[in-house]
Design brief:
It is built from 15 helices and 13 strands. It has helices at 9-12, 23-26, 35-50, 62-70, 79-102, 115-119, 121-134, 159-170, 207-211, 223-233, 250-256, 273-279, 292-301, 342-348, 356-360, and strands at residues 16-21, 54-59, 107-113, 139-145, 174-179, 200-202, 239-244, 262-265, 286-290, 310-315, 322-326, 332-337, 374-376. β11 and β12 form a beta hairpin.
Length: 377
């Protein structure tokens, strides 16, 4: 980890940004929508848009805004009350953005997503097409999780993750995560006076997880989710900046190259679009346990997954669904789209491809997962 002297060109010259603003910022730590600050961010986004930067805004705040309107001081635990708060707050949140962007002759487009929208390949491509069609228009797409209908099983978990998935979806150059902290510190600065700001690091640096802390009362995220989001965004080659949203002119200063916050950079070449989508799957339908030979074939030789190297198949998956690949020690290795239903896959475990027809009476594919439909984590 080193201090950065020059901003990454994706920040100062990239053509497409995804900006995520958290609940604590938008609602002034729970005291209702902070209209003054929202206007400042909108003014900065309008300036960026006028300079040619395509923008997508991932906005938290619906639940927190609804809580304030309903007079609730604590975030509810039940899904039903969270959905009710989101329904009450979402209209206020979007109307606030619409009024402020209209001052700059910009429209807003509300995009509400669930994980199912991005886990189904056809719906993923539809969402991608819609967002890409909006970007050249005088429109700021505003994305949020569809809290009013989402369930625990299909939720993203936090808008940092959603921001990273949207970054992958539209192949953005930069993901900006605005937070109530100045960036990622070496330790929690609230309890450790020796903590220092990390100016630049690799998004895949394993030491970052030990530095991150959990979320606050309003949001579901925290610094830990921002570190995970940066790693996910890096799969499409995007740079992530974690910066304090209360800093004056934070967005335009970042564009100018000012050293604010923490810059997390990708180390590897971007994954192909299909593999980006696979990497972003937060829920899988099953699990395959691989022997040491299969692990070596995938990690060192870039091979497809053959049934002969699979020890066990668990879950309720169907052909074409996403499954997790784990080692014999239970360590997640990757995920991929499987070519056989679970019942058939169980029969094929440890079997060579030459026996598929005698076992099943048919052959769909000679491998359980083709390497083009497989991504390592």
């Amino acid at each position: 980890m080193t201090d950065a002297l020059i901003r990454h060109p994706a920040i100062t010259a990239g053509r497409r940004w995804v900006i995520k603003i958290g609940s604590a910022l938008l609602t002034d730590d729970g005291r209702g929508l902070d209209v003054v600050r929202i206007r400042q961010w909108v003014d900065q986004m309008a300036e960026l848009r006028a300079s040619g930067v395509e923008l997508i805004l991932v906005s938290s705040g619906a639940v927190a805004a609804g809580m304030h309107r309903l007079g609730w001081s604590q975030r509810p635990e039940s899904m039903e009350l969270l959905q009710a708060a989101a329904a009450v707050g979402q209209t206020k949140l979007v109307q606030t953005y619409e009024d402020m962007f209209q001052r700059h002759q910009l429209h807003t487009a509300q995009i509400l997503l669930t994980h199912e929208d991005l886990s189904d390949r056809r719906r993923y491509l539809n969402a991608r097409s819609t967002l890409r069609a909006l970007l050249p228009l005088p429109v700021i797409p505003i994305v949020n999780e569809n809290d009013t209908v989402v369930t625990d099983e299909i939720r993203f978990g936090d808008n940092d993750t959603l921001g990273a998935l949207v970054t992958n979806l539209v192949e953005a150059d930069t993901l900006i995560l605005l937070t109530d902290q100045d960036g990622l510190f070496s330790a929690d600065p609230r309890f450790n006076p020796a903590a220092h700001l990390i100016s630049r690091a690799s998004a895949s640096d394993p030491r970052l997880r030990g530095m991150a802390t959990g979320g606050g009362a309003l949001g579901r995220g925290g610094m830990a989710t921002k570190v995970r989001a940066a790693a996910l965004a890096s799969r499409s080659g995007a740079v992530t900046v974690i910066a304090g949203g209360r800093n004056a002119d934070v967005l335009t200063r970042l564009r100018r190259g000012d050293m604010l916050g923490t810059e997390l950079t990708p180390e590897l070449e971007p994954l192909a679009a299909r593999k980006q989508w696979l990497a972003g799957q937060l829920q899988t339908r099953g699990e395959l346990t691989l022997d040491a030979g299969a692990v070596q074939a995938l990690t060192q030789k870039g091979k497809s997954l053959l049934a002969v190297g699979v020890l066990d198949a668990k879950g309720a998956f169907r052909r074409g669904e996403c499954v997790t690949l784990v080692t014999e020690q239970g360590v997640a290795l990757g995920r991929g789209l499987i070519n056989y239903d679970r019942n058939d896959a169980v029969k094929l475990c440890r079997q060579p491809s030459s026996r598929f027809e005698s076992i099943l009476g048919f052959v769909d594919e000679p491998e359980l997962i083709h390497r083009d439909n497989l991504v390592l984590l």
